[in-house]
Task: structure prediction
Amino acid sequence: MKNHGAVQPSLRIAGLSENGLTALSEARARLRLDGTEVIDLSEGSPDFAPSNTIREALANACKRPDVHGYSAVQGLPSLRSAFLEHLQKRGSDVTNVECIIGAGSKELIGHLSQALLGHGDVVLVPALAYPFYRAAAQYAGAEVIVYPLTDDGNYLPELSRVPDEILSRTKLIWLNTPHNPTGAVLPADFLQDLIHFCRARQIVVACDLAYSDITFERDFAPAPLACGDRSSQFVIEVHSLSKNINIAGWRVGFLVGDPTIVSYVAQSRTVFGGGSFVPIQLACRFALDHFTLLASEVRETYRARADSVVRRLEKAEVCCVRPRGSFYIWAATPDGGCDVAFSKSLLDKTRVLVTPGSAFGTAGRGWIRLSLTRPPEILDKAIDRLVEFCADHSVRPKDAIVNDV
Ligand SMILES: Cc1ncc(COP(=O)(O)O)c(C=O)c1O
Result:
């Protein structure tokens, strides 16, 4: 018999956990409603326009009459092979890999989770992580277990600390390099050892490389398919053009690796979605021919912003991590106080919105994430306000009582 009350969500939707962002989003919406200007350093959406050349390529592609119908769910063959060539140029062995295009890497993370995971499967996610790995795994019905990261400032996965009983039940592990939120980059030899460790246990290594080219000590981050024996077995890389060449709204990502796994993801995409808009794919094909230049413009923009923000924070003795990549600054709250209380009070008193660290996992308590996706003069203004706020000791240890999100 049907219950005639309010419509209930599916168990999948009801099971999704909230995070610390909800309360702040509400506060931000309230402030916006009353017309208050907020400096939003919580978002990961690039603030500047993509290069003229790729916008023109998209406009020209749109003018073609023959590109407006449905397209293949895996993506245009010419774009897929161009992306594989792009990876090959940076040392990846692409002889035994498959590639599928998706509407951004987030969608592909969702499809990979749907394609591989279900009840009874364990997924390992980093102690500090982009929240969507957890949400996507929960949505697929899997059990999420957090693995520790080293506390030496390098934030390296410590799988030796995960009990064998858990490893034996694990189907998939998420890596993210450059890392959101800390900006850490995994070294090639570390990746190689980790892949051997996981492959020996038949654990799929899924490496999220959404910020692969926003790296400050080299031009791009080491990637699993370019490491060690370069075999694709049990290995998946998830790439994105959103941040690397600044076209977040175009929604273009690539899932590359073990052909069997990629074929399962294609099946999931067939059920839930369809091929991406062809002019966007054609413009991305063009972008790959000019990738070095496009990516270096983006990289240098964020390098300058990261340098300036870190310098200001260090000068004011606000503890922060100098990022090796990505476009975030990971900073400690004064006295290690509650990050949610700190962020709320910061927003209230200074109109600067940051992300509380616990939105990335309980290991983020006492930390905040600042996004560098604002112009330099706005970033300067925000950092001045943050520094002054910290110096005022507005947040005291007594605030650090409740930190559950
Ligand atoms: C670590 C990480 N992975 C993936 C994504 C998703 O990016 P997109 O779907 O635009 O490719 C994001 C977005 O912020 C991210 O921070």
Observations:
- The first strand starts at residue 39 and ends at 40.
- The pocket of pyridoxal-5'-phosphate is lined by residues 44, 104-106, 130, 176, 180, 208, 210, 240, 242, 248, 253 (CB under 6 Å).
